[in-house]
Amino acid sequence: MRHIVTFIISLILVSCVKDELKVYQVDITSNEGGRVEGLYLKSEVLEGQSITITAVPSNENYQNYIFTGWSGTISSTENPLNIVISNNISATANFRLRTILEDELYSQIDYNDPYSFLDIFIKDAERYGVDLSNVDVDNGKIKIDYELGEGAYSVLPCDPNKVYIVYGGNLWDRRNDDLTNKYWAIAIMWHELGHDILGLDHLCKGGHIMSGRHTPCQGEEGDQEFKVMWDFRYNSPDNYLNFQRANEEMFLMVDQYKINCNPNSGKGNFKIYN
Fold this sequence. Notes:
single chain; alpha+beta; Immunoglobulin-like; 5-stranded mixed sheet; 4-stranded mixed sheet; elongated
């Protein structure tokens, strides 16, 4: 009888050891546009163990991605994702480029309110460490002028505390037509506010938000393509045509020229046509 009990106990112990040694394969990867953080991303993991994986979108080189979900043996949009291991796991984090309407700031723009653009412009400057708290937002003026049609201009480029923009009615009416026109609405406002708040002149060189040769411009031309804000796109893989890159350089005054506001220059309060 003693031998039988001993044999049964031995079987139980062997069974427990086998259960303790039961492991599963974990293989966690990511597609272009981000990475995965967590432990045991490519390893053997004991059954019942809990792991947490986090998809981290890339925001490098002016390419801003968002996480879209996990695929593989796991299908989920949770992030971070907690997994209790009960079988072999294979999961891939998927990403895609953001649209301008998914940007953390530009997504807050109310396209029916021109003053919403002014508020976001000031917040956009903060992203680059530029303080525009001096701007008198409450008394700012953005006029939608149907007689102007397709144009836009700054009225007070030599007073950094005041805002007065005139925006063509035909341009304004197209702002909600599609994603391209929504982008153009931002780009045009940023160009005119670059004049009005930042006091920036047109650049003869292309590839900048303030590029413009239709009026006297500053600096050497420096390139043959001469692309302007109309040609830029949010998250463009072409750095020359990338809106975020051009936007950062405008706020940080990279290759920018200030308007000559000397009273004798004739550029006190004047119109800069876009």
